[in-house]
């Protein structure tokens, strides 16, 4: 008896199909890896005679696996929300309270406020009860060295930079004279350079398959290099006619480019069933547009699912897609200026940004090597 075609042509993740010669039929089953089995997931038999039912069962199991993986991850610490009890006058806690209610604070972009809140929370936990005018340069530098010694180099520098911003505001408000957090000679850690390989990108897209909105977000990030906030807040009208037009949230500059052909199917899938919504990305869990926090939680769930298949993705962050897009564009032959237009920043004039988003790579270096050509007349003189 010849082996017939597999009953599931495009099976979901973790579905296995094996032809049983003696029984003369296909065995179809869902099989978790050891990491998922440690979380209580087991092998589940499916039915090759009912492919639609089997696909639905496998997708349900993948959703359950993603949720268990998400719950097994460490939870994020809640952002600083300000003191619940009115702090004593002149303390760091009082200054933080006043600053986060000031016009200077409300002029910041929401994403910037989120970053600052993280570091203000750290500052308040350490210095909240201390008088602002008692903070000296040696005290602050010793704290910086303590933070640095913990191995969190970038966090150490950004925490002190946020403290400097806070003390500059305090100086204007009369809390302190001068800013002791300035000019500390802090070490600048090397910029993050993590980029995704194509197998890693495919693993993330496959993990996101149960959530078309997340698969769409990943495709927009990989193929267009935009920031998380601009992707989350993209509207359906912004991607009309196979073009994406946006005003970037960080710099306020315009962006306009053709959609990548491989991203269009993901965009179309995300749009299905949400014609009454203005936003492009609608959460499958709530039926409403994502908040930035809700999107981050959904991303952690997708990544946790992908890590089960590809453990090296554990250190990959959504922001790394922006760098990945720039890296892949350069490898494909795009100029630095063209990549800068895509990203909407000054990567083509800023050496540090260029090194961060487009580090030297074998392909572009080799292309430069082979671009060196001897003129014909020089070749003839050499032959003589």
How many strand units? 5
How much is the average pLDDT?
83
Indicate how many domains the architecture comprises. Answer: 3
Helix content: 40-55%
CATH topology of the largest domain: hpI Integrase, Chain A
Amino- and carboxy-terminal Cα gap: 72 Å
Main structural class: mainly alpha
Largest sheet: 3 strands, antiparallel
CATH class (first level) name of the largest domain = Mainly Alpha
**Please, what is the oligomeric state?**
single chain
| Poorly predicted spans | 74-83, 346-362, 364-372
> Which strand order spans the largest sheet, edge to edge or round the barrel?
1-2-3
Strand content: 5-15%
Radius of gyration: 26 Å
**What's the shape?**
elongated
Which architecture name of the largest domain does CATH use? Orthogonal Bundle
Question: What name goes with the CATH superfamily of the largest domain?
Answer: Intergrase catalytic core
Explain this structure.
This protein has 17 helices and five strands. The chain is mainly alpha-helical and 384 residues long. It folds into three domains: 15-72, no CATH class; 92-173, DNA polymerase, domain 1 (Orthogonal Bundle); 198-359, hpI Integrase, Chain A. Helix 6 runs antiparallel to helix 7 and helix 9 (212-224) runs antiparallel to helix 11. Mean pLDDT is 83; it is low at 74-83, 346-362 and 364-372.
Quick structural overview:
By secondary structure, the chain is mainly alpha-helical. It has 17 helices and five strands.
Topology:
Blueprint: E1 15-20, E2 25-30, H1 34-37, E3 44-45, H2 51-72, H3 92-99, H4 103-106, H5 110-127, H6 137-149, H7 153-173, H8 198-207, H9 212-224, H10 228-232, E4 243-247, E5 254-258, H11 264-271, H12 292-309, H13 320-331, H14 336-343, H15 351-357, H16 362-371, H17 376-383
Antiparallel strand pairs: 1-2, 2-3, 4-5
Helix pairs in contact: 2-12, 5-7, 6-7, 8-9, 8-12, 9-11, 9-13, 13-14
């Amino acid at each position: 008896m010849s082996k017939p075609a597999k009953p599931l042509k495009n099976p979901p993740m973790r579905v296995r199909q094996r032809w049983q010669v003696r029984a003369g039929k296909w065995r179809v089953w869902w099989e978790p890896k050891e990491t998922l089995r440690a979380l209580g997931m087991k092998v589940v038999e499916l039915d090759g005679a009912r492919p639609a039912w089997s696909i639905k069962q496998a997708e349900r199991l993948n959703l359950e696996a993603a949720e268990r993986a998400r719950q097994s991850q460490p939870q994020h610490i809640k952002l600083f929300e300000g003191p619940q009890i009115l702090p004593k006058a002149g303390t760091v806690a009082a200054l933080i309270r006043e600053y986060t209610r000031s016009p200077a604070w409300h002029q910041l972009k929401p994403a910037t406020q989120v970053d600052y809140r993280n570091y203000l929370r750290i500052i308040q936990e350490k210095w909240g009860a201390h008088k602002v005018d008692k903070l000296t340069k040696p005290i602050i530098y010793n704290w910086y060295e303590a933070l640095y010694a913990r191995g969190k180099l970038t966090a150490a520098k950004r925490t002190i930079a946020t403290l400097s911003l806070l003390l500059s505001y305090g100086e204007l408000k009369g809390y302190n004279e001068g800013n002791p957090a300035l000019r500390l000679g802090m070490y600048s850690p090397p910029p993050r350079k993590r980029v995704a390989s194509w197998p890693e990108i495919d693993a993330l897209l496959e993990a996101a398959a149960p959530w078309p909105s997340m698969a769409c977000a990943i495709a927009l990030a990989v193929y267009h290099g935009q920031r998380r906030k601009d992707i989350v807040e993209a509207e359906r009208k912004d991607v009309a006619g196979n073009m994406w037009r946006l005003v970037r949230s960080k710099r306020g500059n315009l962006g306009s480019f053709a959609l990548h052909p491989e991203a269009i199917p993901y965009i179309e899938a995300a749009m299905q069933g949400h014609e009454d919504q203005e936003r492009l990305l609608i959460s499958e869990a709530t039926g409403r547009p994502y908040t930035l926090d809700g999107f981050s939680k959904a991303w952690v769930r997708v990544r946790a699912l992908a890590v089960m298949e590809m453990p090296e993705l554990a250190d990959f962050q959504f922001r790394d897609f922006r760098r990945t897009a720039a890296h892949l564009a350069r490898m494909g032959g795009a100029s630095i200026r063209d990549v800068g237009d895509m990203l909407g920043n000054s990567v083509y004039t800023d050496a540090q940004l260029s090194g961060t988003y487009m580090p030297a790579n074998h392909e572009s270096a080799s292309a430069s090597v082979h671009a060196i050509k001897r003129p014909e007349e020089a070749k003839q003189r050499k032959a003589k």
